[in-house]
Every structure is written in C-alpha cells, then in structure tokens.
Design a protein that fits this description.
- This protein has 13 helices and ten strands.
- The protein has 290 residues and is an alpha+beta fold.
- It has two domains: 169 residues, Jelly Rolls (Sandwich), CATH 2.60.120; 104 residues, Arc Repressor Mutant, subunit A.
- Strands 1-2-9-4-7-10 form a six-stranded antiparallel β-sheet, sandwiched between helices.
- Helix 4 runs antiparallel to helix 5 and helix 7 crosses helix 9.
- The radius of gyration is 20 Å and the shape is globular.
Length: 290
C-alpha cells in the first residue's frame, strides 16, 4: 500500500512563528527572519519562494547551484527544487514572498516560457541587486501588503496575482545572463549542456555513457572534458545530484527508504543503501535518524 508523500512546507511554520500577511496558504509575505530556522540538511519545497536580502549575508545551494552572497541580493527557489542553507548571518534581514505551486501556475500563464522557469533561472537562481532595486522592493511590498489586507474585496486575489506578475517582470532582467557571459569556451558550453541533461535525467540515469550518447561523444572524452571544465568528474556530478535528492527526500518527506529507492530508479533498496553509504558515509536509515 502506497503512503501519501508529505513534502516539507514552510506555510504553517512561517504563519505560526513570524508576523506575516497571507491569503490562505497560497500567498504569504513577511519580513521577519528572527525565528526562521536554518536547516542543517537539504530539503525539498512544494512552493515558489522569492527572497530579497536587504542586509546581511547567506551561503548555500539552490538546485545544486552554490551561492555565497552579501546584501543586497535576490534568490528564486522554484517548486520541487532542492535547497540547502549552510549559513545565514545574525543580522540577516529582507523581504520574502512564498507562493503555492498552484498560485504560481495561475498567475503566470505559459509558465514554462516565463522567467521563473527559464534556463537563466535554472543556471542562476540568485542575482545581486543595486540600491535603487531595494527602493523598488520596499515600495512594492508596501503596495502589495495593502492589497493582501483588503479581506473584504472580492477582487483581492486577482489584484495580488496581477501585482505579483508585475513584480516578476521587473525581476526578470536581474536574472538574465548577459551576452558577454554566453561567449564561453567549448568545454564550458559542453559542461553546461551536460549538467542540464543531468538535471533532467538523474532520477533515472546514473551511467555516464547515457549522457555521452546524448551529446554524441565517447564516455572517456566526456569525462575528461567535464573534469577539465569543472574540476569534478562527470560521474561525480551525477552522484551529487542523486545523493542531494536522496538526502532531501529522507529528511523532508515521509517517504519510506524503499519508495525513495524506487523514485530514484535503483534496482533494489539494498543497492540504493550501498550506493548512498558509499557516497554519504552513512546508511539512509542512519542519515534520516541523524
């Protein structure tokens, strides 16, 4: 009998612990980070987060993309991405929007073609901001807060959706890659193509040969090129994606180890356990208990 998978969410935690404005669990905005825990392990979210840091610094990863940033900066976390906070400074302050996946899909028609799910966000989930950007963010939050507080208005949700759309169109250029950055050496472009393929297929494909065939290369050449471009082997990238997902599922869902093994396409729970322990240093069960 399959058990319903319960992903980690912040909606209830945020609404219970910090002063926030919200429309149900679909839209939450807050600027109080005093009681938001920093998770010591990777976790998977079922929501969309847009965070603007006005003061302080933070370090971690979003979808395997590392960041080590000081204010002012912005971070976008898409639904079902793995996030890992490693450090947030004691003086950290900013503004945050949390939106359910359904809300995000509704307010952005053709969402796959929009900024949030564009390749630029996949490669660059964060962006440095300027002082003028912070002025806009503060002004925007002031207006948005007034709309969210209009509980008697039958158009409250629609107003918030459209205002949110405006905000993301404003944010779009901050996350786009400049034309100069696109001009990369061949190995760097190959590494980018490889990592994109890994991101799309790591749930089911862990063999370097699969990715080499997709890129019309020999496994040996692919491994050498990826090692040269990134400092990490092709198999190392694949293992990192798989283990990060496994760690997130072990800590942030109620899935059984067998269900996680199946979700990651391992032939058996035993095989998954050996694979996990070889890379993580502990068994899945020990990691979940830790």
């Amino acid at each position: 009998m399959n058990t319903k998978v319960t992903p980690l969410t912040w909606q209830t935690d945020v609404k219970n612990k910090v002063k926030s404005k919200s429309i149900g669990n679909d839209f939450i905005m807050f600027d109080d980070f005093s009681d938001i825990q920093v998770f010591a392990y990777p976790f998977k979210l079922d929501m969309l987060i847009f965070l603007v840091c006005e003061k302080g610094s933070a370090r971690g990863t979003v979808a395997m993309q590392p960041y080590n940033l000081s204010a002012p900066f912005a971070v976008i976390v898409r639904p079902n991405q793995v996030m890992h906070y490693e450090y947030i400074s004691p003086d950290f302050s900013g503004r945050c929007l949390i939106m359910s996946e359904n809300f995000a899909v509704e307010f952005l028609p053709n969402i796959d073609k929009q900024m949030l799910f564009a390749s630029a966000i996949q490669e660059n989930p964060y962006a440095q901001l300027e002082a003028e950007d912070l002025k806009f963010v503060r002004h925007y939050f002031t207006i948005l807060e007034k709309f969210v507080e209009m509980t008697d208005s039958p158009y409250r949700l629609e107003m918030v959706k459209h205002l949110t759309m405006v905000f993301y169109y404003w944010a779009r250029p901050h996350f786009q890659v400049s034309p100069e950055a696109v001009k990369q050496p061949r190995q760097a472009l190959l590494a980018e193509q490889f990592i994109t393929l890994v991101h799309e297929n790591y749930h089911s494909e862990r063999d370097t040969a699969f990715y080499a065939e997709k890129l019309f290369l020999t496994p040996k050449y692919l491994s050498q090129a990826i090692k040269s471009a990134t400092g990490k082997s092709a198999s190392g990238w694949i293992d990192d994606y798989v283990i990060l997902e496994a760690r997130a599922l072990l800590k942030s869902t109620n899935m059984t180890i067998q269900q996680i093994s199946d979700a990651l396409n391992f032939p058996s729970q035993s095989f998954f356990g050996k694979y996990f322990k070889r890379i993580a240093g502990v068994s899945p069960r020990e990691y979940r208990r830790g």
